[in-house]
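S.,

Sequence below, as promised.
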Amino acid sequence: MSGRRSSGSRITEDEINELISKLQLLLPEARRNSMARASATKLLNETCNYIKSLHREMDDLSDRLSNLMLTMDTDSAQAEIIRSLLLH
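The prediction came back faster than expected:
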């Protein structure tokens, strides 16, 4: 399946099924509960929930990192390690 489509082309049912299968492999909940027979709607809802949880986790980690950086000596070896990790 190619990346981009012209505005007039339509996606086929087989292509949708292939994309749903690929998506299913990416979701931890789908793998853990073997949602092999789950509907596309349920799978898409699970995907949205998973993305929202990743955003919350990212925000939490960002807040924790900011707080850590505020309490850390900016010239310390730890601060330098964190800065180098953030730049990669």
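The chain has four helices and no strands.

Coffee later?
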